[in-house]
Amino acid sequence: GGQMRDAVTRKRLGQYFSGSKVANLLVDLCALTGGEFVIDPMAGVGDMLNAVIQSGVPAENISGIEIDPNVGSRCKKNIAPGKVYIGDAFSPEPYLFLKRMAWDLVITNPPYVRYQSMSRFESDGISLKTAKETRWSLNELVDGMTHLNDDEKVCFKNIIRNYSGLSDLAVPAWILCAALAKVGGRIAIVVPESWMSRDYALSVKYMLLKFFDIEYIVEDMNSVWFP
């Protein structure tokens, strides 16, 4: 029963942990200097953040947010003494706890899970917002970000208002990551190949081209990264 339930919960949350290969590649491309403040808002067991620490960024500068308490407690061990907040990255509490909203690097492998059409999900102390609540919360978060100027806020809010209701959770996750990056900051994100060709990724492409200079797109032709 336990294992089966775990698999169901994992699928429902889109939990496919990155592993060190993907994490190391992504961190290498970021060419970190060691002085950065880094967050993974969907940290899983901390693979990405662990790779950041290995690259020489002090763990004190590292923060993770993870919605699943079991996974989050593993993450805490993996990146100690880095900070981990167990809760929802689309709510204000993690950022109050971490005392920071603008980051030098936002790095993540977000959940690609079509939960948006579903009802609220509650299991094992995990509570997922509905699509509507996620959109509303993201809007509120952006509103409170002092590192964004008024024009940027208006633009982000338009993107938040207009992304497709059929999107998977990755779309608001991408928008969140982009908004959390400080001026001159970076985002580094894992994407499945099929995803960028879907219609509902258009708002994300628009956002990336408007706010960022794209440094790398790595297309992997034949490696199997995940089970």
What can you see in these coordinates?
The chain has 227 residues and is α/β, with parallel strands linked by helices. 42% of the residues lie in helices and 15% in strands. It has helices at residues 2-13, 19-30, 47-54, 69-79, 93-98, 131-143, 150-162, 170-180, 202-211, and strands at 38-40, 62-66, 83-86, 103-108, 121-123, 126-128, 181-189. It has a 5-stranded parallel sheet. Strands 5-6 form a two-stranded antiparallel sheet. Helix 6 runs antiparallel to helix 7 (150-162), helix 6 (131-143) runs parallel beside helix 8 (170-180) and helix 8 (170-180) packs parallel to helix 9. The longest helix has 13 residues, at 131-143. The protein is globular and about 40 Å long.
